[in-house]
Amino acid sequence: MILGIDVGGTSVKFGLVTPEGEIQNATRFMTADWVNGIGFVESMKLEIGNFLKQYPIVKGVGIGWPGLVSLDRTKVILLPNIPSVVNVPIVEILRSEFPHIHFKIENDAKCAALGEYYFGENKRMQTFILLALGTGVGSGVMMNGKLFIGGRGNGTEVGHMLTTRGKSLENQVGINHLIAYTHEQLALDVAKKSSLHTIAELSPKVIADHAAQGDALALAVWADIGTIIGESLVNIVRVMDLNNILLGGGISGAFDYFVPNLKKAMLEHLPTYYTDDMYIGKATLENDAGLLGAAGLIMEAI
């Protein structure tokens, strides 16, 4: 049995994970409570201890972090949401406290890729990139059955790549920017033909629902998003030499509306070496991806 921990800016999820990917006894703690209480690291150590006492069958703990980690995977080196953790030797502290337990840490998007590899519907796909399209854009790459981390440990930060429009991918297709872009298009719709004018609070799901109803403006927004992602993927595919692509995160629910233009951009700019057997599909673990991916860290080690 593995204890998976998914650290987020809002909450920290704990859950026991079986080798088959079943999550048991999941619980959640508020990040702010830890930061403002006895401290994040001390709180984490305390709750891990509580879990290990309650479930002595646990042999390893995997922890996913929403930031950059050191090459030797012993500490977090960049974490804007929880700065008190930066450069703290978290793995050394935990191993010292629990010497019989195996600990591993990793970036959360890379964890999500591991989760898909071990537990998703595309289980054991040897080489692929996972794009987590949410408030930000995270990514993880499995390369020939191994997690790819780059030369210094934090490769594939594709959300920060510049697009052809001079902005980062994250600042073009992240949820906040998607909504802002939709508002911009609504402001240009002086005839108020779009049904989105009647919506007080936009979200990816709302925009997707209106696209499903044939709203031309909503469809155009998703088409543009697809083009931006597709053009970025052209660069990624060329650099990484892969052509299996999984799409997850908060905007992946609009898969059917942005993927056609995504594919079109890729087909226009890539030779058949990449496109003949190219696969573009949905990531399948949804909200469990981080927790299962953290458990995947231990699966990879045993």
TrEMBL record:
Family annotation (InterPro entries):
ATPase_NBD, ROK, ROK_cs
Coiled-coil segments, which residues?
none
Q: What is its EC number?
A: 2.7.1.2
Molecular function GO terms recorded: glucokinase activity
Q: Tell me the keywords, alphabetical order.
A: Transferase
What SUPFAM superfamilies does this protein's entry cite?
A: Actin-like ATPase domain (SSF53067)
Give, as one word, the top-level EC class: transferase
Q: What Pfam families does the entry give?
A: ROK (PF00480)
Q: Which family does it belong to?
A: Belongs to the ROK (NagC/XylR) family.
Its protein name is Glucokinase
Q: What is the lineage of its organism?
A: Bacteria, Pseudomonadati, Bacteroidota, Cytophagia, Cytophagales
Q: Which gene encodes it?
A: glk
